[in-house]
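Researcher: Let's run the pair from yesterday's discussion. Sequence first, then tokens, for each.
Model: Starting with the first of the pair.
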Amino acid sequence: MKVSDAALLKSGFSHADLQKLKNNIANYGGSLDSVTHDLANRFNASKWITIAAFTILVLTLMLASIDTSITLAATLAIVLPFIWYLTPAKLAYKSWRYRRLTTNSKPRQ
């Protein structure tokens, strides 16, 4: 699948977002297709890590002591923003949304 600037702009990317993607390509190689695919995968990984972390927190709140729950909540308050910082959340979400829209809009045979 060929990803174009126009398709990305139409799906919600800004010109600044496109420039960030192009700078990444210039520095590390690849194509718009590979960069959006990688960012979409990073968004999915971050999303599932966050869901799992909050599920564990809820179970801990229900089953463990208050001290353990507070410690886990504090740890998550430190770790999760760090994970989302490492995954450029805004670009990753836009890439995931673009991939989802293009995947769902393909005609089925």
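Model: Moving on to the second of the pair.
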Amino acid sequence: MDNMFKLCGFWTGIFAVMFFIGGMLPATVIFIASTIFFLLLGYLNLTERMYMYMFGAYLMIFMVGFSYYATFIHVPGGGH
């Protein structure tokens, strides 16, 4: 299970680099934070049950944050 968190850290790191190259700095910061979180968890050697709890908590926080952003901050069709 710890290897899956390391793999998630790798892919979020790849996305962070692509967002940085694309000039999307807020997304870059979010994905760098996710990369650090996943790599940290990958090296903790927790039980499989604790890894599932941590991933569930991560998904819950992400969905609450995304829903808040999509509802109150994002302007649909707001372009540059």
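Researcher: Give me one sentence on the second I can quote.
Model: The helical segments are 2-21, 25-42, 48-73.
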